[in-house]
Amino acid sequence: MPMARKGRLRLSILLCGFSGAACAVLMAAVLVFYGTPYNPLWWWIMAAILLTAFLLPLTLVSAIEWVMAGYRDDSPG
């Protein structure tokens, strides 16, 4: 696997993992504090929010790579 693909994969896993884990922890804290939802539809909504939290950071990967490439291309002085 070329280094660029490996780096992109690592960045994707890192961003999606942190975002999804943070959302899951906060959602679990809300469930512990307030209790389970009274309407069963809320379980589907929470699942959709959690899935979005895992997948949405993928849209940021190319922007972050662009910024990192700019830092690499900058020559001192």
Q: Mind explaining what this structure looks like?
A:
The protein is mainly α. The protein is built from three helices and no strands. The protein has helices at residues 3-34, 41-55, 61-73. Helix 1 (3-34) runs antiparallel to helix 2.
Order of helices and strands: HHH
Could you estimate the helical fraction of the residues in percent? over 70%
Number of helices: 3
- Please report the distance between the alpha carbons of the first and last residues: 34 Å
**What is the averaged pLDDT score?**
88
**What proportion strand?**
under 5%
β-strand number: 0
Sequence-ordered SSE layout with sheet pairings:
Elements (H helix, E strand, L loop, with lengths): L2 H32 L6 H15 L5 H13 L4
Helix pairs in contact: 1-2
TL;DR?
The chain is mainly alpha-helical and 77 residues long. The chain is 78% helix and 0% strand.
Descriptive tags:
single chain, 77 residues, mainly alpha, 0% strand
